[in-house]
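**Sequence with structure:**
===
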Amino acid sequence: MHPRELAVLPDHVDHLQVQAAGDEDLRVMLLGGEPLGEDILMWWNFVGRTHDEIVQFRARYQAEIGVEGTLAEAPIPPKARTRGGLAADAEQYGPFAPHTPAALPAPALPNGRLRSRGRIGLPKD
């Protein structure tokens, strides 16, 4: 791999060996887990199951950072509350640490419905 390169491993990989070349510093971020049993949509910093869910997530985020709408107008979606163990009046995306820069507002949604690209994975070797 090259610096700043992203690698995706095939499903069912049971080990990974990472080694730096020579005296080179190495920084690795590994994300993983059980495959989701459903199609997902990814848009900006949001992951959901439907276009409408992404719209709800964006509205809630915008309200929490104080740039668009109110918390009452953008309740946390029930499925997100259940899965995240959140109270109805909880912050879904915060709180943000006081020493950090202001949160970046989400861009406007595209003029069309978001669609899943399906569950495309890499074949096992």
